[in-house]
Structures are given as structure tokens and as C-alpha cells.
TrEMBL record:
Protein name: Glycosyltransferase
EC code(s) of this entry: 2.4.1.-
Domain of life, source organism: Eukaryota
Keywords: Glycosyltransferase, Transferase
GO molecular function, one term: UDP-glycosyltransferase activity
Keyword DNA damage: no
Keyword Transferase: yes
Amino acid sequence: MERIKSQHVVLFPFMTPSHINPFLALAHRLVRHHPALTVTLVNTRFHIQCIRSSSFPSSIRLRSLPFDPAAHGLHPDAENFATVPNRQKLTFLVASESLLPAFDQLIVDIAREDGRPPLCIVADFLLSWTADVAHRYEVFHSVFIPGGAYGMAVFVSLWTHLPHLKTRSDEFALSEFPDTTIHLSQLSRFMLLCDGTDPTSGFYQRLISHWKETNAMLVNTVDEMEATGLRMLRKLFLVPTWAIGPLLISSHSVASASQNRCIMEWLDSQQPASVLYVSFGSLCTITASQMMEVATGLEASEARFIWVIRPPSEFDSNEEFKAEWLPEKFEERMRERGTGVLVHGWAPQLEILSHTSTGAFLSHCGWNSVLESLSRGVPIVAWPLLADQPHNAKMMEEMGVCVEVARGSMESSKADRTDVERVIREVMCGGEKAKDMRRRAEAVGELMRAAWREGVGSSFKGLADFFRAAASMGDVPSLSID
């Protein structure tokens, strides 16, 4: 690593916390292990301001790019993808491509300041157009995938071929991976509405074509956990691909310190592995009818729980929560009995999952949540909603660390309160299946911890190999796929 000590690395995450956080974790690792390395993290003004207001190392440079959401028909303050209404998600994705000229100028400015271009650009997979900028200035480029390898490989194959349009069956194989079978219920409504000529298909086709121009791929996963998924990605893109996960960082709370303290104190009062943590992530939520089923099933299961709850998907995510979306006086009953805590908005997820009282996680199976849960040895009750989430859930079920309670997109997934109650009892009541899931989850957690062991861990070595390839620019070894 000596050759890269005086070099400059540019990190560019997509504009949403679930993508920014893994980049922040990567930045932390870079400056900790290589203090002479210059690391610049790029984003729009809103997110740069949020990062600056947190306890972020001053050794990491922050640069903002101008972004005008209103010019694209978005709300003037719409800089965070997580808070953009579902009907405008595609508009935001397409609008992100307008950052290209400003990013190009930023690379020119860095080259002028340093007297040479950066060593490498590491960009979010949703910003893969940055490969064009990198090649223009002969800079090594890597796509960074904040998600898992298997889920992303399936996602790419589906958007490339839209195989569900070529069959009348509810099940079909992937073109590049005939042994991988997908069920129609694992596809989101957005994909089901596409025919290959629509704007959504057009965006993903552009995205994937840019991926093919990158020099390398970095994935927020662990070699020992995702050997199959990594092989699939390498087959799709034929570039060096390294696992450098888990990259985890505790999100900074927008809630009060007193609320966070109350949550942790309540956990302190519970028995070991007795609490179910429920959250559908920062980008996803369920419908009002599904919310009612979850609440009813939770209460019937008699399990203790913490539920991070936001307005249903039919409503504005910033709207004040209404009691009518839950069974009558549900929150009051849970509070009086001491059996459940409802958190409106944000909760310290990693801290909750790290607590000995947390026994399982009812999750949408977004990859950050998967890594946070398994890194703490906490098994998962899966309710995947969209994108790579159903494929993440499938992989985890095959690993024996997860059981699925419902499946499908935000608009179409169905779950019965009886199923919710049954699955929660199965996972939380200490039977042999629950014990086996926890043992397996703890074993995966140990693999994750081992991946970053100094000098010997697979992710530690993967990142070192990546920098050797970047330093050799133009001499990256070709990859043979067996």
C-alpha cells in the first residue's frame, strides 16, 4: 500500500442515507488505515451539510455539487431520495444524471489543486455515468455496490432481459444463470409495469451499460458469505470484483437523545433475546391494511417488540402519524402492558440490534439492515418489498438465518395476521428452529468480524488488492470466469 499513500481518492455515493452510510464507513477505514491518503467525499449540498453537522473526521474532505430539484419537476427541497414520493422516484433517478457537468468540473479542479488527477473514483452503482468522467481524465474507476452481490446480480439480469415478459409461467430462469429460478411475486410493481421501451427500463439500461465501462467493482459484502453472488457479478461484468464488507456505521439520530435513552433503557429491562425489532427501512414502508395486519399479529403473538413506524405507503412519508392506521388504542395498550415500544421516525438501529435483549429482526431485507442484523448474530423475519430485497431474503433463507412472512412489492404484498403471529412465535419462542437460526446467524456474524482482521481478513486484503490495481492503472489483470 506504500504506493498510494500520497494519492487522492474520490468517493461519490447516491443521494440517500442508506447509500451514503456505507461510503462514510469506507471513508473512515481509508483514513484510519492510510492517514496520508487524501479522501474526498462528494454529494449535493443538503447531504454535505448533514455530514458536516455530524461527528465526522475532519481528515475527510467534503465537496458539494449544485443540484436543482425544481428544474426536474421535483419539490425544491427534494435532495434526499428517501423522502421523495414513490411517483417521483424515477424522476429523481434521472435527475441525478444532471450532476455530470459539475462532477466533471470537480475532477478538473482536484487535478489542478493536486497537480495530477485523483488515483481513483469510487462511485455508487446508481451513478455509474461517472465512468465517462474517469476515463476522460485517465482515472481508475470503480462502481461501488452498497448492496449484496447475489441480490445485485439477479437485479441486473432481470433489468437486462425482463424475462417475465417472455413466458406465461409464474416461475422462470435467469438468462445468464439457468439454475437460478425467480418467481413473479419477487418482482416489484415497477418492473411488472415495464416492457423494455418505457422510461424506467431506459434508465436501468443506461445504468447497466455504464457499469460495463468501469475498471472494477467493490461490493459491501463478505467473500465467505457470498461466494456465489460474487461469481455471478464477475460473470456479468468481467471486471475485477472485490468484497470489502461489512461497511457499517451508526446513523446519526434526528431524534432526541432522551428518546434514544428511553429505548435503550427499555431494552435493558428485558430478558435476553426476547425482543423483536421491527423496521422497514428508510426508503420503504407498507400499506395501511398491511400495517393493521402486522399490529394485530404482533399483539396476538405476545412477543415484546420495538417497532420503528412511519406513515403507510399511500401517504406522504413526512405526514404526522395517525392512530387510525393501527388497531384502536393499540399504542396505548402496548405502552400500558409494557410489551411494545412504537418509535415514530428514527431509531438507533445498530445499537438496538447490538443489544442482548434483541432476539430477531422483522425486516424489509434492505442490505444495510441485513448486514447490521447478521453482524450482531440476530436472525431475520423477512418481509421484502422491492428491488433486491426479495433476492436477499431468498439467499438468507438458504443460509438458514431467515424465515419469510410475506413477499412482494409495497403495493401488492399480502400478509395475514395469522401468518405474522405464527412466524413471530416460531422465531421468538425458543424452539429448535429458532435456536438453529440464531446459531447460524452468530456464525455469519463471526465471518463478518473476521473479514476485517488486520492483514489476514478477506475484506482487508480485498481493499488492498483494489488499491494495487488502481495504482497500476492500465495494467489491471484480466479475469477468467470458470
